[in-house]
Protein 1
Amino acid sequence: MKTLVLGLGNSILTDDAVGFAVVEEVRRRIDREDVTLSQASVGGLGLLELVVGYDRVIILDAIQTGLAAPGYIHRLTPDEFRGSLRAASSHDVSLTTALEIGRQLSKDLPKEIVIIAVEAADVESFGEELTPTVAATVPEVVELTLQELDR
Amino acid sequence: MKKISIDPITRLEGHGRIDIFLDEEGEVANAYLVIPELRGFEKFCQGRPVEELPRITARICGVCPEAHLMASAKACDAVYHVDPPPAGKKLRELFYSAFYVADHTTHFYILGAPDFVMGPDADPAVRNILGVIAKVGVETGGKVIEARARSLDIIKMLGARTVHPIGAIPGGMSKPLSAEERVDVEESARWMVDFAQFTIQLFNDLVLANKEYVDLILSDPYTLPTYYMGLVDDKNRVNFYDGLVRVVDPEGEELVKYAPAQYLDNVAERVEPWTYVKIPYLKKIGWKGFVGGKDSGVYQATPLSRLNAADGMATPLAQAEYERMYETLGGKPVHQTLATHWARIIELLYAAERLLELTMDPEITDRNVRTIPTETPTEGVGIVEAPRGTLTHHYVTDEQGLVTECNLIVGTTNNIAPMSISIRQAAQGLIKKGEVISEGLLNMVEMAFRAYDPCMSCATHALPGRMPLEVRILDSTGQLVERLSQGLA
């Protein structure tokens, strides 16, 4: 099974880099032919273009639901976002819509997409360091990702 | 308090906010578009080597990293007093033209087309790209994806990385284009010219052939005469990558044409209490408030503004379409905000044609793509046209080339004042005596600013579970009377 582990975010916006930090740590921990590790700063259609051709995708990202304290780890599927996921941009569609476009165009879409997202404290200040609360979650998110890969 | 939930604002993201203020009679007095500002950018850049800024500023935005990359590389050229060799400049423009094809395609089909293809008052459940695909056919959807894919291939070829490209560096480009690569780019460019013509035909059939839509485009709430800004070449034709910034008045007369280094003599930035984002206006005319017209320093910097500010397009098919637009809409300049959608696809055609021209240029595969900087760095300004407006990067360094000051005026920011006015005009027709006449009509307010293609979340890629945009209506005492928003699903 071809799996993509995709860190999403922005490396210079404080907690928005948490997905990247997790991917880097996962890269140190595993070396598997069936697993591709990647990082991107896209949403919507850009995301669709990245996931085509994989059987399974694990997305790692920051999230701000306002419903949980910073550092809370959410495990989500695209369905749970239906109608509310605003992936990334003023200039694109949501992940749900992008996947639906992919289906209509008969693209080779992943059978499974899992999103592991950390509730962020700050994604609006420029900075290359995670806030301490979010940084502290990285080892656990790495473990969750590895468990997800072995599932 | 009455709470109305409007349809998901699926085509303008970020966490922006529209505040509509009512007067004592409950009529719309003012409306503002509030864009959140990302904090600490200048501080983040200070002390860093200036040649890192193309890479850093390209990270500000996931939508138009290529625009920041270009403006930043040009600002670095100026800081180091270098002029890239011809092939370096041409490659940058080739790269940038490919980016424009993807960006304008995305806006037109995904953000603009739903209102016209499905109708402005269609059910939001179908008034989206999926509805458009269902109506115009899955082949069209396939073309949109293919246009993006081809564009990204070219960007990848020249920029090394797609999402945050790094190909442009101070003095030129990091690598030349090989003869084999050129063949691939040419093939894509030809495909893109066809695709752009197909898009214009689609616009003819779906929009211009429909009197209702043409009337909507020409209607008063969507008409806003202001000054118009755009980069032009030495023949006053639209150019996205290089040239002088030309500003014309609401009658189309040139006010000024300035080189990037003179931007501070021409554009001033105003601080308003309701936003952290500084609002640019024309210094020579002055700030007269949120009003259009010749006496107000408010200007627009959009695809339509670029066409208004220029004398024409530099490629033949785009020029023909340019002439047809002005003939159809009653001459130059055009003040109808919704005509920006038309202007955008004329630019799409121009970008594709320019891309093709550049691939056919014998110099494009020249190996000399960079002038190595040798002089002491000082200060520089770089300006390009981002798809959503004139983009200015201004850096000052010490003699080691470490950044001491850094100022950016990004595309969307230029248009905050005109967008606020457009929103107010649209809202005035829709809110009477403190009541929103029709919930469905709120899309008409959205249409007023969607035409500008604003980029609200110019940086953050966190999955924003919270409201992307809310509309607040406040009475004359500042009390919130209605909040039109979409909560979490």
Protein 2
Amino acid sequence: MNLPVIIKFVIDLLAVLLLALGIKGLSKVKSARDANRLAAFAMSLSVVGLLSYYLGTSGIAIQSWIWIIIGSIIGSLFGAILAKKVPMTSMPETVALFNGCGGMSSLLVALGVAIFPISGGQENFDFFKSLINQVSISVSIFVGAITFTGSIVAMAKLQGWLSTPGWTQSKVRHFVNIVFAVASLIAFFDLINGNTSSIWLLVIVSSLLGIGVTLPIGGADMPVVISLLNSYSGIAAAAAGFVVDSQLLIVAGAMVGAAGLILTQVMCKGMNRSLVSVLFGGSLSAQSTASSGSGEYTNITSCSVEECALTLEAANKVIIVPGYGLAVAQAQHTLREVTKKLEQNGIEVVYAIHPVAGRMPGHMNVLLAEADVPYEQLKEMDIVNPDFPATDVVLVLGANDVVNPQAKNDSSSPLYGMPVLDVQEARTVFVIKRGMSAGYSGIKNDLFDLPNTSMVFGDAKKVLNDLIGELKDLGVGEK
Amino acid sequence: MSFISLLWVLLLGSLLGLELIGKVPPTLHTPLMSGANAISGITMLAALTLIVKAEGNVPLLIIGSVSLGFALFNVVGGFFVTDRMLAMFSRKPSNKK
């Protein structure tokens, strides 16, 4: 071992350690921000390690430097701009986009190595020499392509650019996807056998497979899919690590792959879905129209903003249940003003956060934090559920399925078994909603029919603004 | 590095990943996913290797450069966006000071 090798070894070891500490730290609120920076630092360190290794051994040609700089500047610039500009509500699709590009990167590396077997350098990079390299190239292309097209489809669906085509809800899609899968396998083995030309077939069919698998999945399940694809991009990175013989890449890729799987599992649990039903079951709404078609509302009470304000003024304890509708209306800041007024009047205000509120677990916390809601007021479902019977008013804002009592009472409901917030236990429930449309799952919400529930129809932001006015007229929040 | 030892690396890395996030508060799921996603952009190292080893092969240089661009888009964007999210959580301990 000469000096550059030793230096690279030490730097790689340090980078792995810091990355592991980074992921670990990201799972605690206190350390999360520093941990993220630590991980970013570890990544830069790994780049320095790699470049210094090549500088110390084979040297880096001017031409290479030029292409390195071009690629880095363009990629980093776009990444940074997007990260700064994107609104917090679009976080899931942003993560999907980033993730897809990571997959694309692994795909391109494998493709490059496969088409132009590089020779020279100290390790003698003759990639098609051994079976292992062919396997790792194939895996890298296969997983990378699925990650890329799957993530792009997921992003497009979340953005509303793509709807769910009808045929994807029928059995046809299983047939189509099986064809793609079999074709990928054929190309896969053909490639391993040394038939380089089948590489394009592999790229095409695995891309199609990524689209075919993601397209039928309904919006509610998208976060699970994104998390799964995130895990895939780790696997793709690890495979690329085998391709270029980098332990650091393998470790980091494997860590992300495994951590992504755990996170996917956690998300599935929160939504009462199994991974299998997410991937192969089609969208939830398609199933539910069949099973709970008798979804007519019989006992809807609607009320004005004024009544709502009067009830709030008389309350001692108020629980807010925010959902994605709130975020879409960008009303979290207006909501904060309302709760400030209530608090000034001595009313206890708490936010009940369902594990999958928003579009991703934890998404709602981010959105409320953006509006300066104190962290201590955000209560998780298990902690807040026993409080509902002692609560005067519950304000449901743009949430629907997560407050549906069907999940507890109706064993025939597709929602049955999903953990929900027991808002119906409170004395009065106000549901602020645009209309009577169903929630994400497309299932009727029994809560709306209950006698202690009143609907306040209107756009969340407008209703909240009116509410501020009414509260002002009542003298709430004036000192 | 022999294939077998690389497999060991893969195995241990996976086990480490499984252990690292045993329990995460739901609050942090989105930032964690985003942060882990940024780390998966570590393929930038593979892209760099490709460029360095290209030895004047222009198509390969271009593929490597594009690959590097995609990876860094993932890495830089991922870390920035995660930081943006986490900054919101750390803002409110204002009552501490």
